[in-house]
Design brief:
five-stranded antiparallel β-sheet, single chain, Phosphorylase Kinase, domain 1, two-stranded antiparallel sheet, transferase, 2 domains, ATP-binding, alpha+beta, Transferase(Phosphotransferase), domain 1
Amino acid sequence: MGAFSEVVLAEEKRTQRLVAIKCIPKKALEGKENNIENEIAVLHRIKHPNIVSLEDIFESTSHLYLVMQLVSGGELFDRIVEKGFYTERDASQLIHQILDAVKYLHDMGIVHRDLKPENLLYYSMDEDSKIMISDFGLSKIEGTGSVMSTACGTPGYVAPEVLAQKPYSKAVDCWSIGVISYILLCGYPPFYDENDAKLFEQILKAEYEFDSPYWDDISDSAKDFICHLMEKDPLKRYTCEQALQHPWICGDTALDKNIHESVSAQIKKNFAKSKWKQAFNATAVVRHMRKLQLGTSLEGPRQHRSGQPEELYLLLQAGQSCLSTTSSCHSGTISLECSETIRPVWPGMQNSYQATRVHSH
């Protein structure tokens, strides 16, 4: 779904609550109806503090709209690079949250199938912000249809059994968490080759190393944890429940030594600049919207030549086109209103949204 959707940042007028809305052209869904129905079915079933939630659904004659919980803290790797201090314990706490959320999914019979750093977002810009799992476009509810054997996911994070096109289970998510854990501790992926065939061969054989000097200061407990998740045999691989009981997660074996310099250097070297930074900065828009909600300073807002307050003018410049429509959903009729630009007073019904583009996929 992400390949043909647009995400807009929106404010629900009555409550001033900020949300993210996926705007999906129905023409782009032709022949892919099962995919979107699957994602919606999954999102409707889940409610967890570390999973981005679906809050409502609208449709018009031309578009489908998914109203999602807003997460504005940025991508996982960006935050690590920006930190001045980062330790094994920080990585352990991140993985703990991910394991807890994925265990919840697995207990619900849901397999994510595309866990990767790009799908891990911070809820807010707060230093102690929680991490959120997003993007359920490839997720699958166990027991609904055929046995899982479709080769899907992102190269570098997929489990050996997926590449081998064998029937697989929720254990594929645990492998992906192992890969993410590996990267969090060194800044580079366990498998890499410019040639996809050679990359897949490495993964199929589960060939990875804890290279010196990058792993010299990492605890044996962390390496043991990763080995149990990146186990080639899915029947021997740790489940989320087992991983949560490992001393690196629930004990005190994660080291407090600062590894930020080496990890951040490798992240910058091995991973491209995030899409969120290349596109419009969601956090900046949230900040401007919050300024409007908080009112003016003692001096009053500075006026731009347009006659609008300066903060609002920035939003006007950021505003992009979308549909203006009245849509139906399970809670009644709601007006979802977007226009060419953000306006200071938004006309329409009580539950309308004002929106500006954040990111186009």
